[in-house]
Hints:
Blueprint (H helix, E strand, L loop, with lengths): L1 E8 L2 E8 L9 E6 L16 H12 L2 E6 L12 H15 L5 E7 L1 H10 L5 E7 L5 H5 L2 H11 L11 H9 L3 H6 L5 E7 L8 H9 L5 E5 L10 H12 L3
Parallel strand pairs: 3-4, 3-5, 5-6, 6-7, 7-8
Antiparallel strand pairs: 1-2, 2-4
Amino acid sequence: MLSHEQLESGNALLDLRVATSNTRPIASHLLVLVHGLPRAIGMGRQAAGLLPELAEHLANESGWVVVTGTLAGVGGSTGTFSATQWLADLRRILDRVDQDERRISLAGFGLGGALALAVASNDERVRGVATFATPAHLEPWCGSADEFHRAVQITGVVGDANDLLPAEELRRDVLSIDPLGAVAAIPPRRLLIGHGTDDLEIPASDARDLLAAADGRAELRLIQGAGHQLRADPRMVATLLGWLDRHR
């Protein structure tokens, strides 16, 4: 079953969907799926498009409550992208779902994985983090300030052009996130790092760098032949379900 609501986060109104199992007892665990920032023309409105379907599948197979929140400027959510705004959005989602004494975990894709690590590093409510195709080094991922600014604009995650930060400030805001520093703060809480070996956007070596920064205290899953788009890869889904099942 998939329910839908809207959630205020600053000036943004976020789409929030909550999936529960129709067939299995509801577990005392809750997973929040966090989408990334696409870099292709017009893809901002579709960045979280597959996540509700994934949430339903994970909920039905695991019994976990699975939540997907669409961050500012993406899909049907209002607002404009910035790293600060998206971090605030994710914290707002956590505040909303923190109830009934359920144990919360996060699973993030791409930049969403870096956001999940950043939030979890300072929030003990988060009991585990899974990252998929997540950059360990955001400077090369961003590219130059002007390139990144243009990418954000053409992606379509800008609700109001007046709200978009200037190029240098927008890039600095993203670089304020430190995936390597954040991942080091996750253990002994559970940690899964997944990556495709043929990812052309973020090299698989970034996954190994995240593992090293966590002092090796993580599960590393390299998916052979997989590219950057892992959300629909059945091997990723099986990997995530196995991780959920081991932590019921």
